Amino acid sequence: MAKNDAPAVHADRADEFVITRVFNAPRELVWKTWTEPKHLARWWGPRAFTNPVCEIDVRPGGAYRIVMQSPEGTTYPLHGFYHEVIPPERLSYSMDVSGHPAEWHAAIRASLPKDSKLSVKELFTIVIFAEVGGGTKVTIRMRFEAVEIRDAMLKMGMTEGWSQSLDRQAELLAKL
Fold it and tell me: Among 92, 99, 121, 174, which residue's CB has the most CB atoms within a 10 Å radius?
């Protein structure tokens, strides 16, 4: 089996963010941790966050709703729709973050150019699950409406957030 590798971050386009991680687990099990709410709720989000709401209908056109909660009790609701579901190879989905707290949106706006009319509403994500050396390589590709939005989210700690989520997923996979 492959060992759990640290996430690698890269991008092929200016308006995207790509992070990869190799897990020491079979692809079918990694897929389950993305597509079964009891598993997804245990690892989604930065360390110390919980997910008191995790409702997913993993099928093309199916909706999902996740509410992340910080240790201080602040909630970060997000929802969207699955566009493509190819078990256990590929997921694509939209992510609407418009329900995040006003303070979060203000911090994003503060990182945008001063005259910008941009705001973060919806992101598009593609997740690829590939078998590698007895383990599974997960590639998460997020696309943004504009490079400035991606850059603002990077300043807000998107890389660290995804890295912590993937660490939590590796910890969960080691227990399953």
Answer: 92
Q: Where are the beta strands (DSSP E) in 7-111?
A: 8-10, 16-23, 50-56, 63-69, 75-86, 90-96
CATH no., domain 8-175? 3.30.530.20
Q: What is the mean pLDDT of the chain?
A: 92
Query: Order of strands across the sheet with 8-10?
Result: 8-10, 16-23, 135-143, 122-132, 90-96, 75-86, 63-69, 50-56
Euclidean distance between CA atoms 8 and 139, whole angstroms: 9
For residues 129 and 88, the answer to whether their CB atoms sit within 8 Å is: yes
Contact predicate 24/5, CB 8 Å: no
Strand partners, 65: 55, 79
Q: Domain residue spans in the chain?
A: 8-175
Predicted pLDDT of residue 1: 40
Question: What value does the mean pLDDT take over residues 51-68?
Answer: 98
Question: CA 174 to CA 23: how far, in whole Å?
Answer: 9
Can you say how many angstroms the Cα of residue 159 is from the centroid of all Cα atoms in its chain?
Answer: 10
Alpha helices in the chain (DSSP H): 27-35, 37-43, 102-111, 147-155, 158-175
Q: If residue 7 lies in a helix (H) or strand (E), which one and from where to where?
A: none
